[in-house]
Amino acid sequence: MLNYNKSMIWNMTRNCNFQCSYCYFPHKNEKITNPITFESLLNFLNKNDDVWLVGMTGGEPFIYPNFVSLCEQLTKKHFIGVDTNLSLSKEIKAFAEKISPSRVNDIYASLHIEEREKRNAVQNFIDNYHTLADAGFTIKVNYVLHPTMEARYPKDVAFFKDNGIPITPRPFKGIYNNLKYPQNYSSEIKNIFADHPTAGTKMVFNFRGVDCKSGQTFIRMEPDGTIFRCPGDRTVLGNIHENVNLYACATPCNVNRCPCQGINYVKLNPAEGWFIEGMRLFLTGAEKNAANAFRQTLLYDSEHSSALNNIGVFAYENKNYAHAKRLFEQAHNFHPQVPLFKQNLEIVKNTLEGDKQLSIHPEISEIVRPSVVNYEYSVTPEQSTE
């Protein structure tokens, strides 16, 4: 187990040598200018005798100037993790030769199979994976299960398994065909996630009002050295070239959308812990167990409107419309400021009135502490994330 007391996601660059159609950042395949100097970065990290886990992401980290040398300097005291498309063979070979696996948390490799096939680079990916694996690195190959990828996923998993590479599905988070994902995955895709239970914590939760250590022990750094509280909260805490003021303690989350690692840093009460478990079970296809977890939520907090709403969604899908209506009414009455609960109530009312043309269904709520939320965010295509 790595021994560090603070962690940072470093968004090193917007530049990338891949141009994936579903990527949530506009990337350019250009030379990186004005990189952060080793000295500036290490001066910041080495203050106060902290030991950091630096998660290096982008863009593509391996195109960063002198990337392997940078990793050598960082890993003398700190730990790193790398998010990469695993395409740059020369740099990957140098990384495997010069960096100790004991200083690397993991290498998070994105498969991006369609982009890789366009470049005739599938074998290149396989070779680079084994270069790192043979050197002792922990590599996690993720496969973003966009709804359009459902049909080919089993064949891809079998192919890479035959080549010694295990694949981990990752939920798509965003809008496709006017539906919010991962909430609207088919039962077939949920069955895929059933074999990967941790995938259920990769949802976009709403932690507004919940105490979180982001800004205290977890931060995000931009390419120019600006420090944000976290990937979801763009509150500026300073810049490593000037001064950075981290929070002294956990403070309430101020945003309606946690796109990244908040689940690791929030302080949940028992009701909220059961609610998160219910959401995990829901995504992995265990809806009966998810409903039981939401009922446990209500034992600790009888007014947890998100739990009421979500049990109502299950009732609706099982065509128990009268019960669903009662649950949506309770959720709306407890927290009328959340538009989703009213929307779901109107849907079930229309269904009970015999509207056979209804093409929309009630939606799951991911609001963890609904009592403090003034409105529910709505994900737009521009906000969609992998």
From TrEMBL:
TPR repeats: 305-338
Residue ranges annotated for the Radical SAM core domain, each copy included: 2-208
Cofactor(s) the record lists: [4Fe-4S] cluster
Keyword Cell membrane part of the UniProt annotation: no
GO MF, any single term: iron-sulfur cluster binding
Residues in the signal sequence: none
SUPFAM superfamilies, sorted: Radical SAM enzymes, TPR-like
Keywords from the named record: Iron, Iron-sulfur, Metal-binding, S-adenosyl-L-methionine, TPR repeat
Gene3D superfamilies (UniProt xref): Aldolase class I, Tetratricopeptide repeat domain
InterPro entries linked: Aldolase_TIM, Radical_SAM_PqqE_MftC-like, rSAM, rSAM_sf, TPR-like_helical_dom_sf, TPR_rpt
Name the UniProt record assigns to this protein: Radical SAM superfamily enzyme, MoaA/NifB/PqqE/SkfB family
Organism whose genome encodes this protein: Halodesulfovibrio marinisediminis DSM 17456
